[in-house]
Amino acid sequence: xxxxxxxxxxxxxxxxxxxxxxxxxxxxxxxxxxxxxxxxxxxxxxxxxxxxxxxxxxxxxxxxxxxxxxxxxxxxxxxxxxxxxxxxxxxxxxxxxxxxxx
Length: 102
Prior knowledge:
3 helices, about 40% helix
């Protein structure tokens, strides 16, 4: 029984490391549009899943003059800044993830 428990802990710790590595890789791949979008987690402290196709989502949904929100789940949405906002001289890049309690 103890051996099964140790095996279970080994598998779970391996999955956590793989998940963290995948998230890091995805974030590195998206550095070209970094700061122009934000994952917003509403009323939760759970770590959000960042879709692998986030560049495509941003490109497909970015508007010239309006901020766009794309719902990614019940507690998670993607905020995409407009082109006019990004091109402002006083543009301040967004944090990648923001937790919002409403």
